[in-house]
Specification:
This protein is an all-alpha fold and 144 residues long. It has four helices and no strands. Helices cover 87% and strands 0% of the residues. The radius of gyration is 22 Å and the shape is rod-shaped. The termini are far apart.
């Protein structure tokens, strides 16, 4: 059972770590892109929109799914605690139960720690997309 407990713990935390690395990498890439962006160089709004919104879907998906990964890890951890209680034959050590539940809940906290910044980063980049599209439209209006 200890192997299952470790797999649930480290599996969920590993997935959340991977998700946070992906968000950080894509956020840095998008930040560098927006710093170098020149809307005047785009001939069509559709091409600009494709370029400015690139990789934002991944950030959004991570932000919306990280809490579920955390919850899955918590449910797995709680199942392990209940299994251990059942296997103890009724001799219940409350300190072990409480520690087991607390450790299970850490995965939910980790999921929220990944999800909240991811959602904020996504929202910030959506605003940058709106501004870039607006600037492009202003450039077209001035050219006419």
């Amino acid at each position: 059972m200890e192997n299952i407990k470790l797999a649930v713990d480290y599996g969920a935390l590993g997935i959340l770590l991977l998700m946070s690395i992906l968000v950080l990498g894509y956020a840095i890439e998008r930040l560098l892109f927006f710093r170098a962006l020149h809307v005047k160089s785009y001939e069509s709004k559709n091409r600009l929109e494709r370029d400015v919104s690139k990789n934002l879907t991944i950030i959004s998906l991570i932000g919306s799914n990280a809490p579920y990964v955390g919850l899955l890890g918590t449910v797995g951890g709680i199942m392990v605690v209940f299994y251990e209680i059942g296997m103890s034959g009724g001799a219940l050590d409350t300190s072990k139960v409480i520690v087991g539940l607390a450790l299970a809940l850490k995965v939910t906290a980790a999921g929220l720690i990944v999800a909240i910044p991811s959602t904020m980063i996504y929202g910030a980049f959506l605003r940058k997309v709106d501004i870039a599209l607006s600037e492009w439209e202003d450039e077209i209006a001035q050219a006419c």
